[in-house]
Model the fold of this input.
Amino acid sequence: MSQEAGKDAALTLLLVDDDEVLRERLGRALRERGFEVTTAESGEAAIAVARRDAPEFAVVDLRMPGISGIEVLDALRAIDPATRVLMLTGYGSIATAVEATRRGAVGYLSKPADADEVVAARPVRAATTSSASAGLDR
Amino acid sequence: MPSPPHDLVSEPGRIKLEWLVKLHWIAILGESAAIVGVQLAGLMQLPLAPLAALVGFAVAVNLGLQGWLRKDPVVPDGLLAGVMLLDTAVLTGLLHLSGGHFNPFSTLYIVNVALAAVLLPPRWSWTQAVFSILAFGALFPMQQWAPFGVQEHEAMMAVHLYGMLVAVAVAAFVIVLIVQRVSRALADRDEELARERRLAEQRAKLASLVTLAAGAAHELATPLGAIAIASKELDRELSRAGASQGALEDLRLIRAQVDRCKGILQQMSARAGENAGEPIVEVSVERWVEGALDGLPGRERVRADLACGEVRVRGPVQGMERALRVILTNALQATPGEVSLRARCAAGGITVEVHDTGAGMTPEVLARVGEPFFTTKAPGQGSGLGLFIARTLAEQLGGALEIQSQPGQGTTARITLPGTPPGREETVR
Done:
């Protein structure tokens, strides 16, 4: 239905954020861009989803009650190292976001960010260069 | 921090002894003058040889102390007390040789006691007091061996009365000098304590504001994110459906304003977020200033005068560059003319001054400058956080940011930072 998704139409995406409004609206926006989106409201739920079917792409809020975004990142990469994880951060946690990229996240985006920015920050597929980790502020 | 005022009460013993040596010289001069004066006036027959010997002894002791002080020794209270007890003993000898308990200069015992009470801990002060009383008391029985020739009683009485006048004058002068000095030192110390307390209060206020700001920034990020997403999606939807240009512009306005909020949040959390992640590095003052000037709009109007050579400064260098850039931007916006940037480095620390010849600030504005969210710029031009963050950073690094301004006189912003302590890696909390 949407042209932007193009050849990535079937890309599975796991969206993890504890804020329901943001999660569901962003999930819907990403679905409209052709992603096959699953949402999870917590780190525990996200890990359970990934165990059943590891997503190709994950968008993970850094700060959540319970399991933190960094732990989710570690777990997702342990389940499937091919999963590309983009961190979403609020403020006061950029240091942690940098730590996340060291641990294998492909990048981070500061909130507020819209769906287009998430898509733009999504790293290109393995076919092309993998150095693009958009969203780095500095 | 400014060096504490010259404080006789809390200074180390060395300074006290230096002071005492100076007083000794004055006393020796006074004693010599008194002896010579009395002798010339023919008031009394003084035993010059033993008197000269005692004064000579006092001179020798004082010279010895002076020489010793040049080695920068540690002077314990006990030694100070010993010197002062010796003073009292010498005074007793001088009195004994020149009239004994009749000598009006026995008032000078009080000066010695006052000095001891100021310079020494209680134990030694009391020792000095008791010793002075005993010494004065000893003059009574020692009278029988007194070597001076007593003139007739009436003449003696006249000498005694004038002597009393002089002695009281000397004692009064010295005691006022000492006590004034002490009370001034105490007042200075009180003032310094009050200043410290004010600073601590400000810092606490600042810290809670920063915590609040960072917390608010974090909390606002998510709902703003939802607004950003929703407005973007609505924009997509309506563009496709062919909505009016006005409606689409409104949506883009909403989306753009969210980005503006994002900028403010970024600044609000600058301390908690940005600087926290930045490692503390050592960088030359010149490179720091260059970094701040790099890409600064209007930098051609900045006249830099850097005299720091290779002096280095420690801190989160990007945060520091941002802070200096904020100050430079303010100065450049205040004037269409040139802005001077001076960096000076001394042993005590680094001073960077930015001066503009703009309109200056009224005292009311000056008093509020650096408060978070206080700005005189047009809405959208400034968040009122730049200087606040710059000041916070300067204080975190153990320095300060001062702003001086008068209407019509332009504004000077001065960053002071401590000199670099070698070694030690740390990160800003």
Summary: The longest strand of chain B covers residues 410-418. Chain B touches chain A at residues 214-215, 217-219, 221-233, 236, 255, 258-259, 261-262, 265-266, 268-269, 272-274, 276-277, 318 (CB under 8 Å). The beta strands of chain B are 281-284, 302-307, 312-315, 339-346, 349-356, 400-406, 410-418. DSSP finds twelve helices and seven strands in chain B.
